């Protein structure tokens, strides 16, 4: 069993920054492809970013590309989503997810879909005011 706990959400003004954290237990993030998704009120859960277990491949949704960075700290068994230039439309609950799928040659875009993930965190609220 893998437990994922997100933190770092909050209220921020448009143009501001936040760093979301996802602490994992039960499996090393160095051995796991990870993803961030979000769900805005009244909308479906959508892909934000993904990272291969090696950390050398990342993928981002077009809506956030250039504004977010996905990273891993293997020593802390934690992944991060650094978000800059936040917009009101970034307001959502953000979820961290872990995949047990392993590819010899991982490409982070393989992990754009929710059905690629086996474990999910409870989410952290991000609210961006205009």
Portion of residues within helices: under 10%
Instruction: Give the overall average pLDDT.
Output: 95
Major pleated sheet: 7 strands, mixed
Calculate the terminal CA-CA distance, rounded to whole Å. Answer: 40 Å
Describe this structure in words.
It contains no helices and eleven strands. The chain is globular, with a radius of gyration of 14 Å. The mean pLDDT is 95. The strands form two sheets. Strands 2, 4, 5, 6, 9, 10 and 11 form a seven-stranded mixed beta sheet that branches. 0% of the residues lie in helices and 47% in strands. By secondary structure, it is mostly beta strands.
In a nutshell, what does this entry contain?
The protein is built from no helices and eleven strands. With 130 residues, the protein is an all-beta fold.
Keywords, please?
0% helix, single chain, 130 residues, 11 strands
Task: List strands and helices in order, with pairings.
Elements: E1 3-7, E2 10-13, E3 18-25, E4 33-39, E5 46-51, E6 58-60, E7 68-73, E8 78-83, E9 92-99, E10 119-120, E11 124-129
Parallel strand pairs: 2-11
Antiparallel strand pairs: 1-3, 3-8, 4-5, 4-9, 5-6, 7-8, 9-10, 9-11
């Amino acid at each position: 069993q893998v437990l994922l706990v997100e933190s770092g959400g909050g209220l921020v003004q448009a143009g501001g920054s936040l760093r979301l954290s996802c602490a994992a237990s039960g499996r090393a993030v160095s051995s796991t492809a990870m993803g961030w998704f979000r769900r805005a009120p009244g909308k479906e859960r959508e892909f934000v970013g993904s990272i291969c277990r090696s950390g050398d491949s990342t993928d981002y949704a077009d809506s956030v590309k250039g504004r977010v960075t996905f990273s891993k700290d293997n020593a802390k068994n934690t992944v991060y989503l650094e978000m800059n230039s936040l917009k009101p439309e970034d307001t959502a609950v953000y979820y961290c997810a872990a995949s047990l799928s392993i590819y010899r040659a991982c490409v982070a875009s393989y992990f754009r879909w929710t059905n690629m993930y086996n474990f999910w965190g409870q989410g952290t609220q991000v609210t961006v005011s205009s």
